[in-house]
Design goal:
Order of helices and strands: HEHHHHHHHHEHHHHHH
Strand content: under 5%
Structural class: mainly alpha
Number of helices: 15
Radius of gyration: 23 Å
Strand order of the largest sheet: 1-2
Largest sheet: 2 strands, antiparallel
Number of domains: 2
Helix content: 55-70%
Distance between the termini: 51 Å
């Protein structure tokens, strides 16, 4: 087991995660920038007094900072704008790999600050983004394709033990998350009789297209529910077995693409695609290369009957 964990792994997938996650984090908050006072403001949808009351005292909250600077900054919305640009600059630094370790730590803290301040509106995309930022704290994210390497602030390394350990830990967590989600869905009848799919598509907050015609084709809803449950429960099998890994990764991509197209949950779809491709993408690419190599070798074989 320890030999498996301590194998050196390429740092390149971590570079992908660092850049993709940084761009995603900026896009995620840019989407709500016009509505910052409503989503995160002192008197927004969930007021600071309420969101603060549900937190442990040691967790960061925008209200704590406003209390400290209220004598200088009289408008709490100005504080939101200042933290917004600090957040954007931090993730730009992280994407470029400049002061990578500090940027990762500050990005983790700032994202947690926004989560806690708008905790009443928090959902899965925030949780998985925070999880990815946590792993990035321990990854050698600045040792390859970064300004830290160019400026001599970090040693260039393409293979490291820590790269393998952290990616394997994230793989394990994704396996548990997907499989447990599938098991939970399988315990109720809604995902077997199509009701869960129907309700998701018909909820006003999720409706993107007029799909009421599906009421005349319940088999489509039923089969869709079965496919979702099966895909999530079989996630460990599909992503761990080399012969089906590419197909499994493609199915996960399609699942989240459909979530984006039909439910409008593009941010959630994007973060789950990023995590799955980071965790299992390198093995999938290796499987494709191995398959092509086998095909090339097979095509070069000369049958005994053809040798004369």
């Amino acid at each position: 087991m320890w030999a498996y964990l301590e194998q050196q792994d390429s740092v390149k997938p971590i570079v992908f995660l660092r850049i993709a996650l940084s761009v995603f984090a900026i896009c995620k908050i840019a989407v709500v920038y016009p509505y910052l006072p409503d989503v995160y403001g002192q008197y927004g949808y969930v007021q600071w007094a309420i969101s603060k009351a549900g937190l442990y005292g040691f967790l960061p909250h925008m209200g704590d900072y406003y209390s400290a600077v209220s004598s200088v900054i009289t408008d709490s919305n100005q504080l939101l704008t200042m933290f917004f640009w600090l957040y954007v600059v931090t993730f730009l630094f992280l994407a470029l790999g400049l002061f990578t370790r500090v940027a990762a730590l500050l990005g983790f803290y700032l994202h947690l600050l926004w989560m806690d301040t708008g905790s009443g509106l928090m959902y899965g995309v925030d949780v998985f983004t925070q999880m990815a930022l946590f792993y990035l704290l321990f990854m050698p994210a600045g040792n390859y394709f970064s300004l830290d390497v160019v400026l001599g602030l970090a040693e260039k390394k393409q293979f490291m033990v820590s790269a393998g350990v952290t990616r394997k830990l994230l793989q394990f967590q994704l396996l548990v998350v997907y499989m447990s989600s599938g098991i939970e869905k399988a315990l109720g009848p809604q995902w077997w009789n199509g009701e869960a799919i129907w309700r998701s598509l018909m909820l006003p907050s999720f409706t993107q297209h007029n799909l009421a015609w599906l009421a005349h084709y319940p088999a489509v809803l039923i089969v869709s529910g079965w496919l979702v449950v099966s895909l999530e429960m079989l996630y460990p099998v599909l992503l761990l077995l080399p012969r089906v890994r590419v197909v499994g990764l493609a199915c996960i991509f399609m699942l989240h693409l459909f979530i984006g197209v039909f439910l409008g949950m593009w941010l959630f779809a994007a973060i789950m695609i990023i995590l799955s491709f980071f965790a299992f993408g390198p093995q999938a690419l290796a499987d494709i290369r191995a398959y092509r190599l086998r095909r090339a070798e097979a095509s070069q074989l000369v049958l005994p009957s053809q040798a004369y």
